[in-house]
Amino acid sequence: MWTKAIVSGRRGRRSIAISGSLLAAWALMGAACGGGDDSDSGSGGDGELLIWSSRDYYVPPDEFKSLEADQPDANINWDVQDGDDILQQLLRMRQAGQTMPDVIQDDTFLMEAYYSAGLLQPVDDCREQWQEENPELYDKVMPLAWEDNEFDGETYGMSITANFDILYYNKPWLEEAGVEPPFETFEEMYDAMVAMKEARPDKIPMTVQALAGEGVTMLKSMLNAVGVPFDGSTPDLTDPAALYVIDFWQRAQADELIPPEAISWGESETRGAFIQQNAGLIFDGITTAGDFNEVDNFDYNQEWMTTPLPKDSGTGFTGNYVTQPRTWAITVDADDPAESCRVLQYLAETDNLIEPLENGSVPMRQTEALDDPRFNEILPFFSEDLKTAYTESESMPASQNTGEVEEILEQLWGEIVQGTDESPEDLANKYQEQLDALD
Amino acid sequence: MSVLSSDRIRRAAWRRRRRRRREPGGGGRWDTGLAGQSKLAPYLFSTPAIIMVSLLLAYPVIYGLYKSFYRADFFGGPEEFVGFENYSEMFHDPAFWDALTKSAIFVTGCVVVGLVLGLFFAFALNRVVSQLRFLRSVTIAPYIISNVAAAVMFRLLFNSDFGLLNRTIEFFGFDGPSWLADPNLAMGVVIFCQVWTDLPLTILLLLAGLQTIDTSYIDAAKVDGATGWKRAWHLSMPLISPQIVISVVWMSYSTLTGLGVVLALTGGGPLKATQTMPMEMYSTAFTDLEMNQALAIASFILILNAILTLLYVGLARRYGTVE
After folding, report:
1. What is the rounded distance in angstroms from the CA atom of residue A266 to the CA atom of residue B146?
2. CB-based contacts of A255: which residues, under 8 Å, 6+ apart?
3. All domains of chain B, ordered by start, with CATH?
4. Which helix (H) or strand (E) holds A373?
5. Which of B45, B51, B268 sits opposite A212 (nearest CB)?
6. Are A275 and A289 in contact (CB under 8 A)?
7. Per-residue H/E/C for B73-92
8. Mutation to test the B interface, candidates A100, A263, A332, most B Cβ within 10 Å
9. Mind listing the pLDDT tens digit for each residue in B207-257?
10. ipTM of the complex
11. How far is Cα A235 from Cα A397, in angstroms, rounded to an integer?
12. B123 Cβ contact partners less than 8 Å away, ≥ 6 residues apart
């Protein structure tokens, strides 16, 4: 009898323990899965504002504190999401019913995808509000900063910063070759490469990267620089200007002015070749100048200098400089767009554009900041030629299928770099067919 | 003696269970097993694990499979059910067949090279003298290095201009090849790097198998005059065949789904020479932003993996090495 009671009691306790464990497991899993509107990942109302930056160096050094001080009701939180996946994260958050951040930053070429997915709200009212509240600052923002983000007649963000790829050259080598940049035309640049090769046959006149997945900025920049027409992000490779570009690089490959090994080179190898003074020219972003300058015995104005890419082929084709901007945008979950709009204003202030340059940020589309003496102190490599080129520049053509287009252009670029017997026309037709087959 | 006793116990338990089932009300929900435990208890104790596995593993897989039947006109846009259209397009895409071919070469290369090297090192480490036994633990070192970090290291090592390998070749007066720029060599380098990262686990599995072999078998073979090679081929290898099968399944899985090494080493190049299926899936998802189509490739990889695993186990059973 007693034994039965004990056993039954034990069983009862066991059942309770099992049920308790199961409940605890469910509760833990529920907590782990999260969800709901009160999640930490999103912003709440009542002056709560969450800002996501795609890189730490875009965050102003005072970390939004002065903005917070100006708006006593605002509680601003920020985070850096540098995994290049903010778009995917926002989609996931929306699907999970979480609140998205109020303000985000990402590559401008992705903005059409954000817009199509319905993740952003227009900032036209914000622009009006800004123009009324602070017309002086508003007028300093270059129109391109807004134009890049216009879809169906509405503006969806502000591209206040834009990276700019430039030519870096080995100063003693070009002096030795009797060439003085800037190059007026691509043919002049080609002659300089030939002269460098003749003077140093064992060195590389121009280092390029063609590793799959590393992008084709060089090719795309040159296509723009000689005026190749683009439909969205798709160039017309059969255009005579595009044929000139293909022919230019095929000649360079045949004359051993670029290394065929570059098919496996990413930016590290490419930059390494320039830093080690194995290469005379490199086309790279302006921020790389800071890295070059940190290398011992490789000083700006001594070993290397900068110059813009030409925008004239020298054979009758002319075009534009292009930059790669990043956009600050307000998401549909921002429940106080006026407050988010003040974030955009704050980010466009001269100090908040100049000071981040120290941390590796890029030039800005704001006239006062570009003319600020601190700009030249921080980026002495950004010569007047480059500044003029930058202010004249357009944005790299983009559309929703930018990634697919780049993948095809990478194949074309890889084939050119590795060497092929096909004529420029054959190559152009082959890859144009693939580009045309994209949705 | 012990065999006989356990047989008796099993028979007694079976008779007891049968009797209980026949009794009215027997075999109820709280019926107890042989050890006096509730039959339901094991299921209840397993429930949290089953729920966790279902949520963390089964749910994403099933959800991915489900989503592969949908498509959005643009990234993040509304999805519509398209049935097998994503699969149909995948099978009609030459890039998919190219990636499948590359994956076949990659997996075959990795499994063959990995198994041969794994066996070689396992036999060697099994025979090392006690002073060198620390080598067994050292073997695991590559496994604790991230495969992406290893791939970056190999990219530097195989650099045709300043890589250590070509520098060494140049030291002997020859020109080193363009390892990563030549499409054929690039695949070889990728296989080598993948094998390097996966090899420790293979070695440990095979070594563990070798150490479970009863030494009396080896001694008997020695007495019969079997040479070292014969002992290894006719005795040790059949006895460690379960571990060999597990190694092959593991390597096959690891290489068929492996992305990190290829992505960091060649990015699928040069000229798509190393564009394996995971790379194709990756670029479809994150370059082309076509998530549903990428899920179709992922589902195909999953099914292929399952088929290959069944094939390996089936082959092993057929040849009588694994029960």
Report:
1. 20
2. A194, A197
3. 90-318 (1.10.3720.10)
4. helix A373-378
5. B268
6. no
7. CCCCCCEEECCCHHHHHHHH
8. A263
9. 999 988 888 888 888 888 888 888 888 888 888 988 998 899 999 999 999
10. 0.70
11. 9
12. B210, B232, B236
